[in-house]
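New to this. Explain these tokens.
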Amino acid sequence: MREHGDAPEDEQEIQTVPEDEPVSPDSESFDSDSGMRRIEVGSVFCSECGTQNGASATICHSCGRLLDPLAQAQRSTAPVRKLHGVVVATVTGISVGAVLLAWMTGLSMHLEVADVMRVEGERLVRVEVLTSNADLSQVFGLALAFGLAGLVASIVFAGRYLREVVLGATAGVFAQFVLWLFMARAAGGHLRSDLWIAGDGFVLRGPAPILLTQLLLLMLFTAILFAFAGWIAQEQITGKATCVQCHSRYSLRPRPPVRCPKCDAEQDRDGVQWPWVMLVALGCSIAFALVVVFLREPLGFALECHGQMSKGCIDARGDSSFTIFVTAMTSRDFTFWAVDQWRYLGVTAPLMLGAPLLLTFLVKRGSRASAGALVPINWLLATFVVMIALGDLGGSDAGFIFLMRMQVLALFSWGAVGVVGVLIGDKLRYRKGSAYLDEIDDD
């Protein structure tokens, strides 16, 4: 029996909740009889984890993601993130300190001025050039110090502070440039002249602005590469990353969030992914160096001939496709180089095609922009490798001019095949269905 005015037993009372009143997840909104959760008016569901939150909640109580419906509008007007000054100071201190320490202890390259005789027309002319007697550790040792600066920043601060690493390394690069300028002026020369670097087993010769700029860029790229390697290693080991906006740690598992759960700042930037570009450029440069150093004679594009000449050297003397440069001559013997520039371009073209093609599959966002930026960087690093590997050939004026002309031709040919690699990789990504992010960016 039921009293007058009571609701029937088979009827359930429906409670209405105002939209402005928060609903606790622990309230009696779960129907134990039906095993289903009733959706109350005024509740908000998290788009990241699907948890039901109260209407007045600003962040998800489960994963911490912002629930503000105006977050998308705020992102477009959000201020540019501030630089992490401690990271900049750390990288600057290590790189500048390494430059000064190497200069004072003689562990870096020192510049001097020497007079050399050159033939201009039918007469000898005395010319002042910059010289440096340095081994490989003195020439490239500072690049490792810059790499150490980037690695320390990645380990200590655990965030992908790319701009901070670049600024700090740039300060070190500027300090090294000032020291070179000071050494050249103190010796009575200037940085506009030629530079001869002679070491054990190698000779590097060319205009000082070109050679020194390549060394400075190598220092900067090494800092970025080591920092990126440190970030990847730490994230894979710890399973956590640091937001560069609010400097808070968040989990990367089971899958990395696109935005920071605390401040909602985007973590994966569009455009050129410079860390990936530098990593692929380093791998491509190593492969290119192995080809030029160890496979140049088997592939037949550069032959160094002296003493008992091989069959290839004998054939090269009568082949019009080879250019011959005599680098040493005695009363009994002579040494010469035979270089086929077109075969050199053809042999190395597949490497310049494959590098941007590979990069399009390594990055999810900005694959086309990243692969396009890789093409000129590969050329710059390959030119630096050629000037070292074929340094004996570049010891003469004619040989150096020939190498530079060959690299100018490589700029156009490698650039063409690099663009083809970008287009092929982009096409394959669309067929695979992994290029939707680039399509969204274009829209």
Observations:
- Residues 129 and 151 are 37 Å apart (CA to CA).
- Residues 7-40, 434-443 have pLDDT under 50 and may be disordered.
- Residues 83-267 form one domain.
- The chain has three domains: 1-69, 83-267, 282-443.
